[in-house]
């Protein structure tokens, strides 16, 4: 007999001892797991692979294990959300994926390159050309106009100024900031700043966009808009988007969601 | 990916750094700029002064390459050879004088007689530390010195031969002044300028130390015979080195003496430069003015002093019971520089005989017992710098005077051609130049190039270190050993003075420089370190956006260069303003002093202190940049080593 929604709700309430919020959360988890089990990536090409990756930090005299034997594959062109509570290891995973840090153990292969084997300069080039970073606090240069801010990665990449000017203008148009190019960051709203940061991340046409709590500093409307923008980038440009968030609702908008706890994928 | 960022891009990012911590950066810029402004100031002042020295150097002997030489002869002291030579005459004379004194029953002790060629002198703390040493007041000592010196290759002809060998175009000679502590061979007796034609009996004729300025300076600083050729560039307009129709001897007088001759009282220290310039014009009107010099030999001076003392004594004791008037009474000279005459001679025949015996005893060691005196006219043909400058040694004139040793020199000078054999002026000079003792001889050699003059000095100058001065007559011994017989130095040319000036400035500047670099590095390190440390998060973001470590360094190096550029602009502006103000403030008085020191024809020539030496300024700019880069190195290296993740996580 098919389970009616009423029956499902009752079952969830029973499992959570009548706590409605916990029941809704449990429902989302169940849906995610169901979605994951039925997930079929757009492309079977793996763009990033973590194999038994562990990461240990030294904090004072103690060693903190931020990642514990994580193995994961990220497919080309997918929109992946990584969720988890604070300290679960999701940001660490993102940083390792972006080549900002090296694993203590295991191998990370991104876009065909074993990141552990890359020297510092090559790793910088990798970040510049393959990865686009987006941060919770936007990190725009406060004294540069928006267009110059967007062009910063191209400065490190040595792109010709005419080309990057054209590209920054085009990207500003795509994120809806074409009329704000001459503005300074302080003259923009939080949502506009994050959109500018996304444009900046996309300037060098990276294969992977990494966003660390990109909506953590935004209201829900702006957060929704940013996720829709990610969706669009992913669908239209085929860019792989990996978003770290603690917001399960937003994570549900991704193609796939991975939950983390205590440095492991759960 | 490019190895380096495009310069324009790194400049764009570096400019943003100037917007952070603006108050701290502003204070740092001001402090740094003030520090380096001191160096800029010194550089501009030095360059300005050197430029002015060069301009004024075209006056006088400035454009000529002359080397002056002092022959290295026998010393009167610590000279065993001289003492040995004088032993026999000393023994003979002391025996003779002792016998004569015994014969006439005159108390006499040869050991304390300083008119003998040798006398016993204390050489140590112990009463037994006594040694026979030469007396330079004794004619026998002078004769012995002359005899010993004649054996050395130090005559004017010897010098001429050495100079010609080195390519000298001309040689000249002069005497070092006869008075004012002229050393061995210095003329006994004295000269003085008759003020308003009157002889001032109240002030004793000065020897040795006394007023270095005014008319009295002829006695204290001295009067020298100078080669006509070397004197000519210093003559005032319309003047010559020829003896005047009235028999007047041409003479150059110190500025203060000329001022006095013109009846002008000394300008107050507060006088403006315009007043000083006007005064200079007024003083220069002294050209051709004659005055009279009075010469008295030692016997005449002694007699005059005796007469003055006697008259004062009689005046003091006039009417006092028990006071016996001297049996031999003198009159003061009835005319200026005249002889002392006898007013009354009431001596008994015994007294006369006793005086005669005393004279006989004295004459054994003194060949100049007859009073000789007389006045002769001199004509002012030039003005020399006062010993202490126009005013005090601390003012602008003193400064220029102390730097410039290339003028004629201090004192009074007359051309050699003005001195004729056996004339009164020649007597007053202590003889003709060729007869002057070695200790008063000065030679000159003129070369066509500065290099030739320098080479001559390097080849022939004897200047052993003082530490080697051991034993008898050390200077002569050491110089003889290396076959160099003259003490040589540049003369009349500005190059030496400028080199000295620059050297002295450098002596001060190098300490300032080290201090500035240390302080600047510490201050800059603090500020740059803080700014770089504050930018850790931004560096981490840039690294995550693909910046290489080298790109980050490039941004901060450009930033450091921008800060350096600002310091350079500010310090150059401050230094220039300071130098301009100081130059403007001192220029009038320096110009007056320089016109005087160099005897410049155009009294309106300017001696400025503002000049630009591109090399000095480039060096300072380089030091600013190097200091800033040095200060940025440690904070930058520390920043570069940091893990961007850690900085982002700290956030």
Please provide a written account of the structure:
The complex is a heterodimer of chains A (266) and B (651). Chain A has 266 residues and is of the alpha/beta class. Helices cover 41% and strands 24% of the residues of chain A. Chain A has nine helices and ten strands. Chain A has helices at 5-15, 20-37, 90-97, 120-130, 146-157, 161-174, 190-202, 220-237, 248-251; strands at 46-59, 62-75, 79-84, 105-110, 113-114, 131-134, 208-212, 240-245, 256-261, 264-265. Chain A has a six-stranded mixed beta sheet with strand order 6-7-8-3-9-10, sandwiched between helices. In chain A, strand 1 and strand 2 (62-75) form a beta hairpin. The radius of gyration of chain A is 20 Å and the shape is globular. The mean pLDDT of chain A is 88. Chain B is α+β, with helices and mostly antiparallel strands and 651 residues long. Chain B is elongated and about 125 Å long. The two termini of chain B are 29 Å apart. A four-stranded antiparallel beta sheet of chain B has the order 4-13-1-14, covered by helices on one side. In chain B, 50% of the residues lie in helices and 13% in strands. At the A-B interface, helix 4 and helix 5 of A face helix 1, helix 17, helix 18 and helix 20 of B.
Mean pLDDT of chain A: 88
- Low-pLDDT windows of residues of chain B: 180-186, 205-209, 389-394
Bulk shape of chain B: elongated
Q: Work out the oligomeric state of the chains in this entry.
A: heterodimer
Beta content of chain B comes to: 5-15%
Query: Largest interface: which pair?
Result: A-B, 31 and 29 residues
Please state the CA-atom Rg of chain B, rounded to the nearest Å: 35 Å
Average residue-wise pLDDT of chain B: 85
Annotation, overall tally of beta strands of chain B:
14
If strands are numbered along the chain, what order do they take across the biggest sheet of chain A? 6-7-8-3-9-10
Question: What is the overall number of helices of chain B?
Answer: 20
Question: Structural class, from secondary structure content of chain B?
Answer: alpha+beta
Number of strands of chain A: 10
Instruction: List low-pLDDT spans of chain A.
Output: none
Helix content of chain A: 40-55%
Strand order of the largest sheet of chain B: 4-13-1-14
Helix-and-strand structural type of chain A: alpha/beta
List the helices and strands of chain A in order. Answer: HHEEEHEEHEHHHEHEHEE
- Radius of gyration of chain A, in Å, reads 20 Å
Largest sheet of chain A: 6 strands, mixed
Gross geometry of chain A: globular
């Amino acid at each position: 007999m098919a389970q009616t929604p009423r029956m499902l709700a009752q079952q969830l309430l029973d499992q959570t001892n009548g706590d409605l919020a916990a029941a809704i959360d449990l429902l989302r988890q169940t849906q995610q797991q169901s979605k994951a089990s039925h997930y079929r990536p757009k492309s079977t090409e793996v763009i990033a692979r973590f194999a038994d990756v562990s990461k240990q930090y030294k904090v004072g005299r103690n060693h903190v294990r931020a990642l514990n034997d994580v193995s994961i594959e990220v497919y080309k062109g997918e929109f992946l959300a990584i969720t988890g509570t604070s300290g679960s290891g999701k940001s660490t995973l993102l940083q390792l994926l972006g080549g900002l840090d090296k694993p203590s153990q295991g191998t990370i292969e991104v876009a065909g390159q074993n990141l552990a084997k890359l020297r510092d300069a090559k790793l910088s080039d990798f970040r510049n050309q393959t990865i686009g970073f987006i941060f919770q606090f936007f990190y725009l240069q406060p004294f540069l106009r928006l267009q110059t801010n967007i062009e910063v990665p191209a400065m490190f990449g040595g792109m010709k100024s005419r080309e990057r000017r054209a590209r920054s203008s085009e990207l500003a148009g795509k994120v809806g900031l074409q009329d704000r190019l001459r503005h300074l960051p302080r003259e923009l709203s939080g949502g506009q700043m994050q959109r500018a940061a996304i444009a900046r991340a996309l300037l060098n046409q990276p294969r992977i966009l990494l966003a660390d709590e990109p909506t953590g500093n935004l209201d829900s409307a702006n957060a929704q808009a940013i996720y829709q923008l990610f969706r669009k980038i992913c669908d239209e440009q085929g860019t792989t988007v990996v978003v770290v968030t603690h917001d399960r609702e937003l994570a549900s908008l991704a193609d796939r969601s991975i939950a983390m706890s205590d440095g492991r994928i759960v | 990916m490019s190895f380096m960022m495009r310069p324009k891009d790194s400049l764009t990012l570096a400019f943003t750094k100037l917007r952070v911590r603006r108050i701290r950066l502003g204070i740092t810029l001001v402090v740094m700029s003030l520090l380096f402004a001191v160096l800029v100031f010194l550089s501009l002042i030095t360059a300005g002064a050197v430029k002015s020295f060069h301009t004024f150097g075209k006056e006088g002997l400035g454009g000529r390459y002359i080397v002056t030489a002092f022959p290295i002869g026998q010393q009167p002291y610590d000279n065993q050879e001289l003492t040995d030579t004088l032993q026999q005459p000393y023994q003979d004379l002391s025996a003779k004088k002792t016998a004569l004194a015994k014969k006439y029953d005159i108390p006499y002790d040869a050991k304390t007689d300083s008119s003998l060629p040798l006398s016993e002198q204390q050489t140590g703390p112990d009463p037994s530390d006594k040694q026979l040493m030469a007396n330079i007041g004794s004619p026998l000592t002078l004769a012995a010195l002359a005899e010993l010196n004649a054996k050395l290759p130090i005559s004017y002809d010897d010098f001429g031969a050495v100079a010609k060998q080195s390519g000298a175009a001309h040689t000249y000679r002069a005497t070092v002044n006869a008075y004012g502590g002229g050393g061995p061979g210095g003329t006994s007796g004295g000269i003085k300028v008759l003020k308003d034609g009157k002889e001032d009996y109240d002030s004793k004729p000065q020897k040795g130390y006394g007023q270095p300025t005014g008319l009295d300076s002829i006695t204290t600083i001295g009067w020298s015979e100078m080669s006509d050729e070397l004197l000519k560039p210093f003559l005032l307009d319309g003047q010559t080195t020829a003896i005047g129709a009235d028999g007047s001897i041409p003479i150059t007088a110190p500025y203060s003496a000329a001022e006095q001759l013109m009846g002008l009282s000394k300008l107050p220290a507060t006088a403006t430069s315009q007043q000083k310039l006007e005064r200079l014009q007024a003083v220069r009107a002294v050209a051709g003015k004659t005055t009279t010099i009075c010469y008295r030999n030692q016997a005449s001076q002694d007699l005059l002093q005796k007469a003055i003392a006697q008259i004062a004594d009689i005046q003091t004791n006039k009417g006092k019971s028990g006071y016996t008037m001297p049996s031999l009474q003198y009159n003061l000279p009835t005319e200026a520089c005249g002889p002392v005459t006898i007013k009354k001679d009431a001596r008994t025949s015994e007294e006369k005989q006793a005086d005669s015996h005393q004279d006989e005893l004295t004459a054994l060691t003194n060949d100049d017992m007859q009073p000789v005196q007389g006045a002769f006219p001199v004509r002012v043909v030039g003005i020399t710098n006062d010993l202490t400058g126009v005013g005090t040694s601390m003012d602008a004139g003193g400064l220029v005077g102390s730097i410039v040793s290339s003028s004629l020199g201090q004192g009074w000078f007359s051309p050699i051609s003005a001195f004729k054999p056996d004339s009164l002026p020649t007597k007053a000079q202590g003889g003709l130049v060729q007869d002057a003792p070695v200790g008063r001889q000065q030679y000159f050699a003129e070369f066509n190039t500065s290099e030739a003059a320098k080479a001559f000095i390097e080849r022939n100058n004897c200047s052993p270190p003082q530490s080697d001065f051991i034993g008898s007559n050390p200077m002569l011994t050491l110089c003889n050993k290396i076959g160099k017989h003259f003490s040589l130095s540049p003369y009349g040319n500005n190059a030496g003075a400028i080199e000295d000036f620059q050297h002295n400035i450098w002596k001060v500047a190098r300490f300032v420089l080290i201090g500035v670099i240390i302080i600047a590095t510490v201050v800059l390190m603090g500020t740059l370190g803080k700014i770089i440390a504050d930018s850790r998060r931004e560096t981490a973001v840039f690294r995550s956006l693909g910046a290489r470590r080298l790109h980050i360094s490039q941004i901060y190096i450009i930033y450091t260069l921008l800060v350096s550029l600002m310091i350079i602009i500010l310090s150059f502006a401050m230094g220039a303003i300071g130098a301009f103000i100081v130059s403007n403030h001192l220029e009038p008085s320096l110009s007056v002093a320089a016109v005087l020191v160099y005897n410049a024809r155009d009294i309106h020539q300017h001696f400025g202190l503002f000049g630009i030496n591109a090399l000095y300024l480039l060096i300072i700019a380089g030091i600013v940049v190097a200091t800033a880069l040095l200060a940025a190195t440690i904070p930058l290296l520390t920043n570069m080593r940091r893990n961007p993740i850690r900085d982002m996580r700290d956030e």
